[in-house]
């Protein structure tokens, strides 16, 4: 029982950690396993080039080597798309995106044809998505073909055409006919404008770049925030377009932001904490169960991993539950969002606070030691001021190289919930029966709450029962558990539970039976005694049977309360039922066998009389058909009549009514058919004779 209670409390501990934790973990092997499940081809192929690209891109980012063979399918689809004159700019865009990873061969003639078609699509574009697919396709084919001369003759004019869809709040419209704007469209626009800048054949007007930087700042003014510091973008429903959730919207903005930062001169003047907040949002999702969401998460984190604004660093702990008894060390790991090694840095523990307390920090600032073998920053021994309980540790990351501060962002301070557990010392446990009037000890027994006990006590309603013990933490301090309960269970299964109070280390419960007779429903007899002491940080929580006490209570008065009905075990309905004995009626007396056979003979006599009558009258077979087919039907008709007579015999000896009716139905249909054919032949023959 004690082991079961400890397991249950550990489960509560981890559940409470998951609820309160603002701890973010970088991409791990669980994401790689999920990628192999989510991006498995359906019946050997993907439904679209977009899905092919998302699978290839995900496998590339996560570095998965043992993956499904997608390249052959991708190259076949890419070849068909680029070779078809009916392919849309969207089809060409995703085929080129997939080809940037699959590296299939596209001949120069096909490349020139694609460039011509995409340039024409740019000139005829009327919506944001038209520009996105056509400009994006040109950028991709420029990166993949070194011989192709890809550029926009009027890049600034195209830039202004796309910029016309922008709004004053940093959001963008999909077209001039649609007044609704969204952050998702803003991400698409930023990615499109980054492509236009990279395709410009001459020096680009920097005033346009500066204007766009201001739009980005306005867009980030509308960013939303969770309590754990995660930042995200969200959209309302946009008319004419499918609503995008926070994940896809934020992913669109991140892709556009990082693409534009890669081609824009100078910095974007975005605070590093906002980039870190975006990273926390994607990592806080965990492992998405949808392939599209999974791709958006991984692709966005890859963009943040290599962006020119700020590369976020993530502080994580392999273990947030530390045992004082086992002398666990505090380990902190700092990585990039994809789990790559961080630059040279120092991790400091700058504060530790009891959960829910506003008191001063329990520790002084101290630096954790870096272990190059494990890549972890370690504090081998917890400070003496840290005892069992729940805490909030505050960490600070300091980059060792000044130039790294322009590249990486780690945030100011990181708060992490920590649970410190340990073995609680239980001592001076005893149970005593006291005299109610004088308070003198009548019976006193020591008990071992860490072992087995079988205490046997007796008392009457004029006496008291006292239970006392002491709890001490590994640091020697008083410990107050979440639960300290004393249970008395009567032999009739009626239970009574009492909370054991404490004063410092001393826990004590005194039961005055005189004042409890009504609560005990005047039930005398044996009461089993059970003690529960449990806490999430107590490694030796216990549910201990102490023994029993025989209570002698007075007889209940006339109007005394009765004990409540005990709940019925719901599984008892599935147990064995009481045996039911049936008494059948005695069978009636039957006639002798000889009499029954005689009666059977009498019933057969009419049939014999019928046959004798036929012989006496003479049987006429002149009208029996002579031709093969009619004769066959006539024979089958008579056979069928004989089968019906035989069925009657079977019904008498073997078959029941339902079996007989079923067979009679089939025979009736058969007789109807062959009889009709036989009688039709006879009627035709008779008519022919009369006409002659």
Structural write-up:
The protein is an alpha+beta fold. The strands form 6 sheets. Strands 10-11-7-5-13 form a 5-stranded mixed beta sheet. A 5-stranded mixed beta sheet has the order 6-14-12-8-9, with helices on one face. Strands 16-15-18-22-21 form a 5-stranded antiparallel beta sheet, with no helix packed on it. Mean pLDDT is 89; it is low at 1-21. The chain starts with a helix and ends with a helix. Strand 21 (501-503) and strand 22 form a beta hairpin. Helices cover 40% and strands 20% of the residues.
Name some characteristics of this structure.
single chain, alpha+beta, 692 residues, five-stranded mixed β-sheet, flat
Question: Can you give me a brief rundown of this structure?
Answer:
This protein has 16 helices and 24 strands.
Ends: how far apart?
109 Å
| Number of E-type strands | 24
Strand order of the largest sheet: 10-11-7-5-13
Over all CA atoms, what is the radius of gyration? 45 Å
Structural class: alpha+beta
Biggest sheet architecture = 5 strands, mixed
Q: Helix share of residues?
A: 25-40%
As a percent range, the share of strand residues is 15-25%
Shape, principal axes of CA atoms: flat
> What is the average of the pLDDT values?
89
Q: Which stretches of 5+ consecutive residues score pLDDT under 50?
A: 1-21
Number of helices: 16
